[in-house]
Amino acid sequence: MGPRGSARPTNTTIDKQLRTQRERKPAAHKFSRTAPGGNSVELFTWEWPGNPPATLLLHGIGNYGRYWDFFADAVAGGLRLVAPDARGQGESGKPVGAYAPEEFVADAIAILDALAIERAVVVGHSMGGTHAIRLAAAHPDRVTRLVIVDAGPEPMPEGSERARRLSLERPERFEYADEALAYLRKTSPGYSEDVYANRMKWLFREDAGDVVWRSSRDALASIMSSARRGDLWDALRAIRCPVLLVRGTRSNVLSADVAQRMIKTLADGRLLELDAGHNVALDRPKELAEAVVAFAAG
């Protein structure tokens, strides 16, 4: 018997909790998109079951679909979530070249088509945020609402240089997992043990006894060389759906000034600032999830 005033969970309650956890475990999909030139790429995608509307999650450079795990846990089935590994990253294909922004937009449309999703809320962080902007501008019939997380047309130099350094100057192999973990702690300090565990699981894989990155450095270099920012202002002007812009107040990527200019440029934009760095979904998953669920509901 438990302490006075408390109640032990019944077997029925425990079974229900376990069943809910299993139901919320993401399903893995593998889709193939063939480009007009005939080249195909596999797109690995994770899907969490939940209530409508369907919500597409686009991660930043060098990351992976399961980057959104903590956000998905906080959403807790409030939305149906779809999170691909972007081409060149995670478990998705790593073609030679073919990393222009339009390729990522076409990949997103292909994933929505494969899952029979006519229209979706789109949430994009960093690189994924710039792709989400282009997606909403080019395909207004497919995007009901847009959430841009710490991304914009004019990134701060400090954040751009950090992304370049971490993408292109990283060690390619580690002899031991502890060495990879130490590298993550050194280059991205201050996260919880759960976050480091997530990143160790999904950033790396084993290769001939070593620990190597899942993302391709050649792909990351191609993404950076193919990136265009100047046309994002025009894309923002073209967007007609409601937009929520989320900025981390400690971000080294999206400045307060650029965020305000983005809001003034958008036809229907609103700004939310959270006490976070650039990785808002890791620093403040609960607050971000609450904001996205409320925004998706209209």
From the structure above, extract its key features.
11 strands; 12 helices; 8-stranded mixed beta sheet; 298 residues; Rossmann fold; alpha/beta; disordered N terminus
Can you tell me about this structure?
The chain has 298 residues and is of the alpha/beta class. The chain has a single domain (12-157, 217-296), classed as Alpha/Beta hydrolase fold, catalytic domain (Rossmann fold), CATH 3.40.50.1820. It is built from twelve helices and eleven strands. It has helices spanning 11-23, 69-75, 101-114, 127-138, 157-168, 177-187, 193-203, 217-226, 232-238, 256-265, 280-283, 285-296; strands spanning 27-34, 40-48, 54-58, 80-84, 120-125, 143-149, 173-174, 204-207, 210-213, 243-248, 269-274. An eight-stranded mixed sheet has the order 1-2-4-3-5-6-10-11, sandwiched between helices. The chain has a three-stranded antiparallel sheet with strand order 7-9-8. α2 crosses α12, α3 (101-114) packs across α4 and α4 crosses α9 (232-238). The relative contact order is 0.14. Mean pLDDT is 93; it is low at 1-11 and 13-22.
Quick recap of the structure?
The chain has 298 residues and is an alpha/beta fold. The protein has helices spanning 11-23, 69-75, 101-114, 127-138, 157-168, 177-187, 193-203, 217-226, 232-238, 256-265, 280-283, 285-296; strands at residues 27-34, 40-48, 54-58, 80-84, 120-125, 143-149, 173-174, 204-207, 210-213, 243-248, 269-274.
- Residue share in β-strands: 15-25%
How helix-rich are the residues, as a percent range?
Answer: 40-55%
Order of helices and strands: HEEEHEHEHEHEHHEEHHEHEHH
Tally of individual helices: 12
Strand order, main sheet: write it out: 1-2-4-3-5-6-10-11
The CATH homology group name: Alpha/Beta hydrolase fold, catalytic domain
How many angstroms does the end-to-end distance come to?
46 Å
